[in-house]
Amino acid sequence: MASDSDSLVTESGPPPSRLGSQDQGFLQEVGNRVRSARKRHGMSRKVLARESGVSERYLAQLETGSGNISILLLRQVAAATGMKLRDLVSESQEDAPEILSILELARRASPAQREDIINSLTGMLDQSGTNLKASRIALIGLRGAGKSTLGKLIAEDLKIPFIELNREIELDSGLAIAEIFALYGQDGYRRLEQRCLRSVIDRHSEVVLAVAGGIVAEANTYEMLLRSFHSVWLQARPEEHMERVRAQGDRRPMAGNPAAMNDLRSILESRQQLYANAEMTFDTSGKTVAQCRDELSGLLVSRVTGSHS
């Protein structure tokens, strides 16, 4: 006998054998996304069935592209009303009709027009006293500046979550960073980086985020970060950058590259003006982790409490 959950997810409609290739492809894509999400969370199908209240049999059908046919009917309704399917099924209470209208206009706009829309809304919200940065803190800088080490400690002091953006990218893609670069190149990595940054912003109003040093090279992503976070450029002397990376057991910066220190100085010099756009600069050179923690926590508490008030 079918479970209650089965009865909720089986609606009338044409059998899969009579579906067009486009519809069948859509159901297959939905199934792929469900399976990918399940694997990202390390869940077996049995565990997902228990947590969701949907039978394991139906989940198997869904993941193989033989799932609920009524989702196609819902897609037809969305298309007929000029909306996207995600707009109809979103559970966010903030998705009022006015917001959906703004989204539809933004989709029809050119990239330049979208930038104008963002700038206009940002200015209006700033004038109305809405703080877009909330209690979000982003640590930027080259490897070895102390982003991960200090980020965890600062988050502990402020009692808010700590996230490494590269880890979010790995969870989202199901691939290690090195594999992403090997398969999709730098452009593919940058697209994932921007998507995951937007996801962190949407999910967290309070967070300490450590980002890869090269994020400043992608103008749109960096602008999004500066607009949405209290940003801190963690500085250090080139020699300390290199020594800290080596102390972590990573000798790649020196392996087969006697000019590694010159390369590091060159990267620092080329990015200096971009890093300097951060809201704050904090030099970790010659300081212990404890000293950096105390000083930086003290500087950031006022920013975070100011956001709350």
Tags for this entry?
about 300 residues; alpha/beta; 15 helices; disordered N terminus
Q: How is this fold's topology laid out?
A:
Elements: H1 4-9, H2 21-40, H3 45-52, H4 56-63, H5 70-80, H6 85-89, H7 97-108, H8 111-127, E1 135-140, H9 147-158, E2 162-164, H10 165-173, H11 177-203, E3 206-210, H12 219-228, E4 230-235, H13 238-247, H14 260-275, E5 280-283, H15 289-308
Parallel strand pairs: 1-3, 1-4, 2-3, 4-5
Describe this structure in words.
- By secondary structure, this protein is α/β, with parallel strands linked by helices.
- Helices cover 62% and strands 8% of the residues.
- The chain contains 15 helices and 5 strands.
- It has helices spanning 4-9, 21-40, 45-52, 56-63, 70-80, 85-89, 97-108, 111-127, 147-158, 165-173, 177-203, 219-228, 238-247, 260-275, 289-308, and strands at 135-140, 162-164, 206-210, 230-235, 280-283.
- A 5-stranded parallel β-sheet has the order 2-3-1-4-5, sandwiched between helices.
- It is globular and about 70 Å long.
- It starts with a helix and ends with a helix.
- 21% of the residues are buried.
- The model is unreliable at 1-14 (pLDDT under 50).
